[in-house]
Design brief:
By secondary structure, the chain is α/β, with parallel strands linked by helices. Helices cover about 35% and strands about 25% of the residues. It has three domains: about 240 residues, Aminohydrolase, N-terminal nucleophile (Ntn) domain (Glutamine Phosphoribosylpyrophosphate, subunit 1, domain 1); about 190 residues, Rossmann fold, CATH 3.40.50.10490; about 160 residues, 3-Layer(aba) Sandwich (Rossmann fold), CATH 3.40.50.10490. It is built from 19 helices and 25 strands. Bound molecules: 5-amino-5-deoxy-1-O-phosphono-D-mannitol.
Length: about 600
């Protein structure tokens, strides 16, 4: 939540900041601000998106070779010009951008107010600007030391960049539980950002700050990193494999549609990299830990949102194929529940961004108890990836649309490969079945490409759905988590209320909602449950509900009962979620477009949820 970017070098900072903020807008988009420095401070803040700020600054002075910028997702204080970042210290000397939450801000604020400091916003962030300046002036210490002493008093999470009006050769950056990366350019420039996206246009050499690290970025003396307790840190420069083209929309109007259409190709790359010519599945990163997996008493999967849904699919996969007990936990509940853990448990975190605050905290909790942790993450170098004992990357490319699409299918595909691998290694899957399942997965990208043909049909049905206030999504077995995911997709981007249910649970409450105005999306692609699903559909029809059924190409039975049908190619049942979710992604997409909603940046949401 919130994106921050900063530049220091020989060129104009403003265009770098604006471009960076546009790339970080997925992290929050309720207000924006920049400050550049050229003798005087040019500070501009606007409610709304980066484009609003750009319009506002069109004829204004923005020059300067150092600057900081911010795109906000409000936590403390409503989205308006006053609460937008950068925030400026009492004397106007320091300006600061912040991503995170200062939990003890109220206590710090009262102490500063008692000393005569005046606050002009309702944010927690402004406390930091005044506190740092207070220490700097009272203790007569350099800025980096004042930042260090201030952060020692702070509880909560932060990624911050601070600029001093009187020194255009330095920036100070620091982080705790919110991400921050520093790009190191060959010509001596530095770009600091919440993730690598704004950086890779200028350099692929990046340092990801660790928790409680402070960077002194000095144009003359270079970069120095120290810890909060003032120990020097060796510079760990990583070369990231990302290019600016990956962040465009290509021929599509929206990131979401582009990412839906990317699914066949990104999954082809994943599967090709994981299968050898004999159809053996490769998980080299888990080789040193295989014994732990095979002897695990239980796997606990922890995640949030769509990633949690992928975890729920994994429960079916791991239990069916590898016969391993799996619990799936919302990270936000798990971390505060004092869960019973055994030394031979394995905890798996699933996260597209690798920065979700609750998932990160859940992993910190289990690590403290010495439990082995493993993560499935898309964002390379992210906090969760670095914290866990082992990580497998999805490598599906940057996902920028707030609604998760290719990350979900990437997660489920990787979890399918892992379930088969563990099943085989643990002797639960015979060689012949192992090869058959691997071969079936190899066909998946082609099957997904065929699935996308349903786009036109989903668009037609979206015209029906858009006129309704509610929808129910029903599925059984492997398709139950897909029902949850379909409902989440619809509500988050079209604002139509939707709920997912196991189809048989309908009789225990939700059936009361069904009448001629209730659309129900029924997932009916799993062969083993078809009879049962058909019975559930008869129960709906008896109450005049409108049925939109997702069926496979061999279906004859469900088609007879449903009002509308979306046909997808058939695939082995364990992999059916990866196929059946595609029409649901498209259905929500077209419904949102028909309702003129902003599909990439839905209201109140942000892509990366780095606060609790
Ligand atoms: O980055 P993560 O996978 O940890 O994010 C978790 C959720 O915030 C995320 O999946 C969210 O539910 C999706 N954007 C919904 O489409």
């Amino acid at each position: 939540m919130c994106g921050i970017v900063a530049y220091i070098g020989q060129n104009e900072a403003f265009p770098v900041l604006i471009k960076g903020l546009q790339l970080l807008e997925y992290r929050g988009y309720d207000s924006t601000g920049v400050a550049t420095l050229n003798g005087t401070l040019n500070l501009y803040k606007q409610k709304g998106k980066v484009q609003d700020l750009l319009n506002f600054t069109a004829n204004k002075k923005t020059d300067g070779t150092v600057g900081i910028g911010h795109t906000r997702w409000a936590t403390h204080g409503q989205p308006d010009n006053q609460n937008a970042h950068p925030h400026v210290s009492h004397s106007g000397r320091l300006s600061l951008v912040h991503n995170g939450i200062i939990e003890n801000y109220a206590t710090l604020k009262t102490a500063l107010q008692n000393k005569g400091y005046h606050f002009s916003s309702q944010t927690d962030t402004e406390v930091l600007a005044h506190l740092i300046e207070d220490i700097q002036t009272e203790q007569l210490v350099p800025l980096d030391e004042a930042v260090r002493l201030a952060l020692q008093q702070v509880r909560g999470s932060y990624a911050i960049v601070i600029m001093d009006k009187d020194d255009k050769t330095r920036l100070i950056a620091a982080r705790k539980s919110s991400p921050l990366a520093i790009g190191i350019c060959k010509n001596g420039e530095f770009i600091v950002a919440s993730d690598a996206m704004p950086i890779v246009e200028y350099t692929n050499d990046i340092i990801y700050l660790d928790d409680e690290e402070i960077a002194l970025i000095d144009l003359i003396n270079g970069l120095k990193i120290t810890t909060l307790d003032n120990k020097s840190v060796a510079l760990n420069i990583q070369r990231v494999d990302l290019s600016p083209e990956m962040f465009g929309k290509g021929k599509f109007d929206t990131y979401m549609l582009k990412e839906i259409y990317e699914q066949p190709s990104v999954l082809r790359s994943m599967i090709n990299a994981r299968l050898d010519p004999q159809y053996r599945i490769l998980f080299d990163e888990l080789l040193p830990h295989m014994d732990k997996f095979l002897k695990a008493r239980r796997i606990i999967i922890t995640a949030c949102g769509t990633s949690w849904h992928a975890g729920l699919v994994a429960k079916y996969l791991f239990e069916n194929l590898a016969r391993i007990t799996v619990d799936v936990e919302y990270a936000s509940e798990f971390r505060y529940r004092n869960p019973v853990l055994f030394p031979d448990d394995i905890v798996i975190a699933i996260s597209q961004s690798g920065e979700t605050a609750d998932t990160l905290a859940a992993i910190e909790l289990v690590k403290e108890q010495g439990i082995f942790t493993y993560s499935l993450v898309n964002a390379v170098g992210s906090s969760i990836a670095r914290l866990t004992d082992a990580v497998s990357y999805l490598h599906v490319g940057p996902e920028i649309g707030v609604a998760s699409t290719k990350a979900f299918t990437g997660q489920v595909t990787l979890l399918s490969l892992l379930a088969i691998h563990l099943g085989y290694m643990g002797g639960k899957i015979p060689t012949q079945q192992y090869t058959e399942l691997s071969k079936e997965l190899e066909k998946l990208p082609q099957i997904l490409a065929k699935t996308l043909i349903c786009n036109a049909q989903t668009q037609k049905i979206a015209y029906l759905l858009k006129n309704h206030k509610n929808a129910l999504y029903l599925g059984r077995g492997y398709n139950f988590p897909v029902a949850l995911e379909g409902a989440l997709k619809l509500k988050e981007i079209s604002y139509i209320h939707a709920e997912g249910y196991p189809a048989a649970e309908m009789k225990h409450g939700p059936i009361a909602l069904i009448d001629e105005n209730m659309p129900l999306v029924v997932l009916a692609t799993n062969e083993s449950q078809k009879e049962k699903i058909a019975s559930n559909m008869h129960e709906i029809k008896a109450r005049k509900g409108i049925i939109i059924a997702i069926v496979d190409e061999h279906d004859t039975q469900i088609t007879q009962i449903a009002d509308y049908v979306i046909v997808v190619p058939a695939i082995a049942e364990p992999f059916s979620p990866i196929v059946s979710v595609i029409p649901l992604q498209l259905l929500s997409y077209h419904t949102a477009v028909a309702l003129r909603c902003n599909v990439d940046q839905p209201r109140n949401l942000a892509k990366s949820v780095t606060v609790e």
